[in-house]
Every structure is written in structure tokens, then in C-alpha cells.
Amino acid sequence: MPKYIWTEKYSVGVKEIDKQHQHFFEIANEIIALAGQEDIATSELLFKITNLSNYAVYHLLTEENIFKRYNYPEAEAHISAHNAYREKMKGFIAEAEKDGADAKNLALQMAEFAGDWLMNHILAMDKKYEEFMREAGIK
């Protein structure tokens, strides 16, 4: 599975958010690297998934707090997309916690979902707020 590479096309013009997106890609890549290992301890996978999930919560709340503070007009739809991501992550964690979980397969699914979701979310949803943020003076 190829790594996820952050490039300028994913920039939304807000340094803090761009930095968080880059870190998000790094965590997804750590899970890809884990999936490439011959034997994966379920505990290690659960640690990585939880790390990604926790970081996602932090990042999504960063965006949502900005939306509230500056009254972003498309906040409701954006937050709905965030909530769908949160639910999917809960599902991955629940799967990893099950006895006999296929850690390798789960790691691949998780990395692919997280990386693809982030790339698509940035390009389809986050880019919509780029001009709004610039006009609000958020850098």
C-alpha cells in the first residue's frame, strides 16, 4: 500500500490546520508501515488506531471551534462529515478489541480509510472554507 503524501494541493491556507493535516497523514503512514510487518500484535494496532482516533478528535474539534467562533455558514454539513468519521473510527476500535481480530487486515483497512478519507475530505470539504478563513483573517 502506498504512503499518503501531503502536498501543497492539500493546503487550506491556515498554518495550524495544514500542520494538523500533515500529522494526520504521518499517523496513517505509521499504520501502513505496521500493516507491512509480518506479525502484528493486536495491542500495537489498537494503540495506533487509538492514537489516530484521538488525534482526529483533536483536529476535528480545532476546525469545529473555528467554525463556531467565526460563524462558518457550512459548519453543519462539515460537522456531519466529521461525525461520520468519528463513528467509523469507533467501529475500527471495536473490531480491534475483539478476540481473534485480524490485526494485519484491520491495519490495512484502517490506514486506507483514514488516508483516503482525509485526502478526499480536505479536497471536497475543507477547501470550501479556505476563502472564508482568508476573509476572516485566519492564517
Key traits:
139 residues, mainly alpha, 4 helices
Annotation, overall tally of beta strands:
0
Order of helices and strands: HHHH
Share in β-strands? under 5%
- Helix count equals 4
Protein structure class? mainly alpha
Overall, the morphology is elongated
Q: Roughly how many Å is the radius of gyration?
A: 16 Å
Structural write-up:
The protein is built from 4 helices and no strands. The mean pLDDT is 89. The chain has helices spanning 15-35, 42-70, 75-97, 103-135. The protein is mainly alpha-helical and 139 residues long. Helix 2 (42-70) packs antiparallel against helix 3.
Short description:
This protein has 139 residues and is an all-alpha fold.
Topology (SSEs and partners):
Blueprint (H helix, E strand, L loop, with lengths): L14 H21 L6 H29 L4 H23 L5 H33 L4
Helix pairs in contact: 1-2, 1-4, 2-3, 3-4
